[in-house]
Amino acid sequence: MCAFGILALITSTVMQIWHENMDKANRAVSRRVLREVADSCFRRILYEIQQHDDGMTANVADFYARDWLKLEGRQADRYRFYSLRLEKKLKAAAGASTDDDAEPLFGDGEAVGTSGSGDDDDEGAEGAGSINLIEVTLHLYFADEGDDKPLLTLKTYIPQPESTE
Prior knowledge:
Layout: H1 2-47, E1 57-59, H2 60-66, H3 73-77, E2 82-94, E3 103-104, E4 131-142, E5 152-159
């Protein structure tokens, strides 16, 4: 009788360890899938930067699975738990920006030192060497939760596209 008690104790311990390891494995797979989805969505947004507005929100099942991968049904629905939000900010990386909306990339906007001859009487030099960048940030969230803490955030800077007017 004592042998059955020992066998039951060992079996329950092994089953508990097995369940804990399966939970860890499932979480790892979910994180890997989330990173793949985030990277793919971020690349798509960067390639099509002018088609996506600041503040854009979308469900990943629609934006990624149905529109891009052309998945249907249950295959696309596995992504319905996630949503994404895009933020774009104009930043002035170098020089004096001619765009009033551009925030300085470094510092608080005060002029820091300049290089050159020190002559300040160059007229028309304002904005001559300016470089504007777009700070692109993608946040992934759980779709149904009202939590403002993203699961994953990706950020990069790209040159501001030339206007085609």
